[in-house]
Amino acid sequence: MTQLPDRPLFADRSLLLWAIIGDVVVLVGMTVFGFLTHSTLDETWRLFVTTLGVLVAWAAIAPWFDTFSDTTLKRPSAVWKVALAWTIAAPFAAFLRGWILGVGISATFVLVLIATNGPALVAWRAGLAAYLGRK
Is pLDDT above 50 for 4? Predict the structure, then answer.
């Protein structure tokens, strides 16, 4: 019989809530920034679908990589899990976007998602972990 781990999968509720809110702000902000850099912010349906794909992919993939546990949220040295999770989530986000919009999945788009949103998520989570680690 498999034994459950001693530590909970998710952090305490208030810490988990702040992590989720921060992740959403970072991912939505980066998506809006991407549309701004391409002067396509007026394409609201594409903006909505891209944002939805990014958020759904992150919500589906991130927990599998222990990104919301107390250990990961409070240790800057564990932020690599966020980078790994985003590397897996980005292609899924591109797939969801392409599927909903009925367009192909660009490898360049996937690489840009990894290279922009990944560092933004890692920076946010590293800052959060450093702050929480000092408390």
Answer: no
